[in-house]
Amino acid sequence: MNDYPANAAAFRYVLNTAASTGAGTIIEAGIGAGAAIDTWHGAGLEISGFDLNDACVEQSQQRMVAIGLDPAAVSQADARDADSLVGVRFAGTADLCVAMGVAPHCDDTALVVGNLLSLVRPGGTVFIEFRNSLFSLFTFNRYTYDFMMDELYLEATPDLRENMSQAIAKHVSMEIPARPAPQSQFHNPLAILEELAGIGATDLDVIPFHYHAAIPMTADLDRQGFMEASWELESRQVDWRSLFLCSAFLVQATRGSGR
Fold this sequence. Notes:
There is one protein chain. The protein is of the alpha/beta class. The chain folds into two domains: 6-132 and 184-255, Rossmann fold (3-Layer(aba) Sandwich), CATH 3.40.50; 142-169, no CATH class. Helix content is 35%, strand content 22%. Strands 1, 2, 3, 4, 5, 6, 7 and 8 form an eight-stranded mixed β-sheet that branches. Helix 5 links the parallel strand 4 and strand 5. The longest helix has 16 residues, at 6-21. The chain is globular, with a radius of gyration of 19 Å. The two termini are 39 Å apart.
């Protein structure tokens, strides 16, 4: 959904936590070009960040300079490599850490979330974005096919799988997304907390965001109405419908005292 302020929806939860806990420092993992730097600075937070991509690090450093902040607070590091995170400013002492677009590109989810959790102090909070696999049931495209074949009916017999493959392919848009598909991982919000149970976090919570008020393929029929209705849903009380209507979710986790 083009031009949808999805990150703004997610950041509201981060900013509310910052305000309610009196947080003073934040680390942004996968800081990219620094689009959120102004948001964190405007909230009165001291900012640190890192990215695997050198060009992104440079862009974020330039943004830091532009608003009068220390560019050295942004560095090159890899969320999958705990050793590389040691040099990140505020590592182990930050009040907050936020990671948008990091977990979907990492194979070992628990490892990455554990590494991010180590960046905050005991009692500090981490917000990690995940792509919602359940939303695939709502898209009626190749993601729907993949979810049903690879997740729901993974253990079906070969004959049944072949029959289902043909049947499902007739009723979804198999050409969307165009191949090759974006190389990113989907996660199930109903299973993610169990997956992360051993990382030493407390108060694990799932927060769906990036609502779609109608089937995505119908968005262009009334894009303005679609955008407005979808954004309005961001203020609704989260319930079971949110797990299907949202294309993404945050996991909010608090670092335990024993970690």
